[in-house]
Amino acid sequence: MASALFMRNRNYRLLFSAGALTNLGDGLILLALPWLATLMTRDPVAIGAVAAAGRVPWLLFALPAGVIIDRSDQRKLIARADLLRAAIVFAILLLALNEPSADAIWLLAGLAFLLGSAEVLRDNAAQTILPSIVDKKDLEVANGQLWGTEQLTGQFIGPPLAGVLIATGIAVPFGIDVAMLVIAAGLVWLITLPEQMRVPQSFIKALLEGITFMRGDRDLLRLAIVLGIANFIATATITLQVLFAQDVLGLSAASYGMILSVAACGAITGSLLAPRLTRMFGVQMCLYLSIAAWVIGYGSIGLSETAIVMPIALFVVMAGSMLWNVITVSWRQRRIPSTLLGRVNSIYRFFGWGSMPLGALAGGLIVALFEDEWGREMALRAPFVLASGACVLLLIYAMCKLRLSGAE
């Protein structure tokens, strides 16, 4: 069924292929961008600021992006966003070619902000266009393939490849990402779809219509809040992973890239098994298992004494995360009316992703606050231990309040 969908649906093949290319490029940036930041400074707050800058656009622009998506040709919007991202990454490439300096960290943060702004439009539009490309009955399969490929290229192949490429020059991964984005934009431009319905209302009225729908759907609103807390926790740890790997585990760029690849294996496993697991155990139980995986994974990293624990723990965390993603994205795409999907999806991701810059800053601040009293190593462990405890509370809330009605 999975291979049949790819073979019979030309538009899906183009979207899938474009996503694979952009995610491979993103995988290079996933390691190269924070590594470039660490070449400029060792300040955890400054490094956290770079990570936060890339996520702040979700807090600032997610709501208006939804209206823009529902009022635009989503195919052209995705292609133009990828071209804009290529131009921004090229600017980062030029910065990487210069001698690293502490002052340049803030220019890097500014470019990360611009890159994140383009991603808000691109990522929301890509989720919104999918129900126009595949049948509703194929959404779990399509989302599973897309999420799995994202992890294969963006986490399994991209980071270790970046680790190898950095040895030849820190600017090399950024140059490859530019090429990937340009090719992906061309593939998306080739997608052919019927004329899409445009939102006729004014900008404000259209936005309010999406907000009203979101407020009226208690299950959807609670799911967005849980996602926001989970992403806050995740970003607080992800921001410090590179410093944890360098300063606590003593890893090189190539070794850290291999750890991210193991994590990607977990993500691929979770995304591909999600449809089968939901049939076996049901949506509700799988959601609880996802959060339980975060509890175990974060706690294991924070308390670990050897480097081997980190990849195994991240495998568990990412498997749970992808199981969550496939379930909840497919549920939203069915539940939200197509004419509202761009706006409501963006509002949902405002809650879910808008917390990420706050989490990135929180991770850096936790280390900075605890370092003088506890020492560097213990301060770098603290965000992971705190994340595990927070996920315990999140699991209790989900079991008491979170219900995906109509999902079974």
UniProtKB/TrEMBL annotation:
Topological relation to the membrane, as annotated: Multi-pass membrane protein
Organism of derivation: Planktotalea frisia
PROSITE patterns reported for this sequence: MFS
Stretches assigned to the Major facilitator superfamily (MFS) profile domain: 11-406
Transmembrane portions of the chain: 12-33, 45-69, 178-199, 220-244, 256-274, 281-301, 307-329, 350-370, 382-400
Record-given protein name: Enterobactin exporter EntS
Keywords, in A-Z order: Cell membrane, Membrane, Transmembrane, Transmembrane helix, Transport
Record's keyword annotation contains Cytoplasm: no
SUPFAM superfamilies: MFS general substrate transporter
Annotated compartments: Cell membrane
GO molecular function, one term: transmembrane transporter activity
GO cellular component, one term: plasma membrane
Leader peptide range in chain numbering: none
InterPro entries per UniProt: MFS_dom (IPR020846), MFS_trans_sf (IPR036259), TM_effector (IPR010290)
